[in-house]
Amino acid sequence: MKFDTVIIGGGLTGLISGIRLMQKGQKCAIISSGQSALHFFSGSFDLLNNLPDGTPVNNPEASLLELSKQAPNHPYVKMGESKFTELAQKAKSFLTEIGIKTQGCSHKNHYRITPMGMIKPTWLTMSNFAFFEVGKFPWKKAAIINIEGFLDFNPDFISEAFEKIGVETSIAYFNLPELNLIRKNPSEFRSTNLSFVLDKEVNQDLLVKILSEKSQGCELIIFPDCIGFRNADLLPGLINRLGKPIYLIPTFPPSLVGVSTQLYLKDYFTKLGGVFMLGDNATHADIEGNQVTNLYTLNHGNIPISAKNVILSSGSFFSQGLLADIKQVYEPVFDLDTDYLTDRADWYNSNLFEKQNYQQFGVKTDKNFHGIKNDTPIDNLYVAGAILSGFNPLKEGCGAGVSFLSALYVAEQILIKEKTYEPIAQYK
């Protein structure tokens, strides 16, 4: 099997880079072991919320100089300030062009509400999800409506968050007879299964009646993200019939927006002609000189996959893109050089909520994000996403941003190399 580019990892990074390359006429394959971290997606992409020293960031674009001083090996710093700014600005256009609408910009963070009712800064938020800027929330009273027995959404937490921004709230619950069929099993009472009931056309009149009654005297409705999975037009239709806005709040994972985003990006990639190898794992590769010549997977055994270029976007420890034993942190497919602290006692902090050093461990790369093996860059192997070293996705609030921007960046490097690059600025 021969491809222009083979991508290891079917999460956000792999799918974005694959779509970008396929748009430019490349023949691509994605090797995906299964469920990715996208299933934990909250409906918002974080770009940069805090500097490594904990200083809050309001304008990510204006923070690169200070970031370069505090974290010189951060993926954003390796890209360079101008390229970071360019890609951060064009990412929204890229999403819009492939049919995903978002709110927000890269020169000013806005705020979102998490499933726990925390107010956090973010970069881009999916349409229909609640977001706000300080002092600019235009409503006075909101109805928070939940399904009876649905524990992945807590109205009390959400109410507290809205009260903090000066919005009065009321809380109400409802039930539909058909929901009792899945309520018997708590493990099945999840957002994806709820949506199969709520999305049915036969239930729409009753749902409109319930929401109308439960939101009397309120200017908007806050609802858990468990609607519109099979029909993207459903929510706009409900809003039109009710005559008031409905804003969604993400639920605990697996989230409906995460699952639907994963499926949407995968379908978009395959409709462009991409090959998605679901349930397979890259195991090892042949490297001759500074080139990956063949790649092998678990399902294909000794049948090699060859490509002009390879993108490693297999994620960090969560998805086993990185592994650790008692002495070291290592990358299992190519045995690339990794950045980690040699004293294992320094890998973690006993306080769970403090900075954990292991979160910034990862694969070493050069400024073009070539993977490095034995101190030498591999010319046709690019590394992107959570597997990169030099950043702390949780404490810095930059995990999605690094995944997204590094995906576009390595795709750009490949297109330049293959002389088929056109600036992303073409997107309107």
TrEMBL record:
Keyword Oxidoreductase among UniProt keywords: yes
Domain spans labelled FAD-dependent oxidoreductase 2 FAD-binding: 4-402
InterPro entries on file: FAD-dep_OxRdtase_2_FAD-bd (IPR003953), FAD/NAD-bd_sf (IPR036188), G3P_DH_GlpB_su (IPR009158)
Keywords tagged on the record: Flavoprotein, FMN, Oxidoreductase
Entry annotated with the keyword Flavoprotein: yes
GO-annotated cellular components: glycerol-3-phosphate dehydrogenase (FAD) complex
Molecular function in Gene Ontology: glycerol-3-phosphate dehydrogenase (quinone) activity
PANTHER family, alphabetized: 4,4'-DIAPONEUROSPORENE OXYGENASE, PHYTOENE DESATURASE
Protein family membership: Belongs to the carotenoid/retinoid oxidoreductase family.
Protein name: Glycerol 3-phosphate dehydrogenase (Quinone) subunit B
Protein species of origin: Apibacter mensalis
